[in-house]
Amino acid sequence: MYAKILVAIDGSNTSKRALHAAIQLACDHHAQLQALYVIDNPPVLSEAGYYDPTTLRAALIEEAERVCADASKAMQEASIASATELVEVELVGDDIAHQIEQGAKRYGADLVVLGTHGRRGMRRLLLGSVAERFLRISTCPILLIPAPHDD
Questions:
Q1: Is 151:115 a contact under the CB 8 Å cutoff?
Q2: How far apart, in whole angstroms, are the C-alpha atoms of residue 127 and residue 122?
Q3: pLDDT above 50: residue 124
Q4: Is 114 among the domain residues?
Q5: Residue 86 lies in a domain
Q6: What is the pLDDT of residues 95-105, one digit of tens each?
Q7: Other Cβ atoms closer than 10 A to 110
Q8: pLDDT computed for residue 151 by the predictor
Q9: Cα-flanking dihedrals φ and ψ of residue 84, to 5°?
């Protein structure tokens, strides 16, 4: 049923659950799996005073590479055809959800697997929801994996 599955990862417990679900689906369907990590470039605030954005970017890339390496190891242990991809949000007019959608199109994904924290009310309003934004723009099927109740 699925030949190519894309899973969005970010190192959180919820994305780890999504990765494990995607690995299981890939095994069940003999599908290829790609893990996608999107680096979100935070806006530069002039009120914050001077800071070197290259230091922050280097830290974000280092964390992303670590998470991708962990995902790659888990996928290899499952003996499935797999790859990882690391992309960055453009500074203007872009967000994580759009990068996931573009990644799914580039990969030719039949299914996108995402973790969701299931935030409600004020927390969702303040923190936003990548999964919700992605649901609104996606052109392919989506499997949402909820956060464990203790998160």
A1: no
A2: 8
A3: no
A4: yes
A5: yes
A6: 999 999 999 99
A7: 17
A8: 46
A9: -125, 155
Residue 129 resides in a domain: yes
> Left (φ > 0), alpha (ψ -120 to 50) or beta: where does 62 sit?
alpha
What type of residue is 103? G
Q: How many domains does the chain have?
A: 1
* Helical axes 13-29 vs 53-77, angle rounded to 10°: 40
pLDDT of the residue at 125 = 45
**Strand blocks (E) in the chain:** 4-9, 32-39, 82-88, 111-116, 142-146
CATH number of the CATH domain containing 22: 3.40.50.620
Domain of 67 in residue numbering reads as 4-43+51-146
Q: How many CB atoms lie within 10 A of CB 18?
A: 27
Q: Rg of the chain over CA atoms, in angstroms?
A: 16
Place of tokens 């994580």: 96
Structure tokens at 70: 């962990």
Give how far the C-alpha of residue 20 lies from the chain's centroid of Cα atoms, to the nearest Å.
13
Tokens of 112: 């996108």
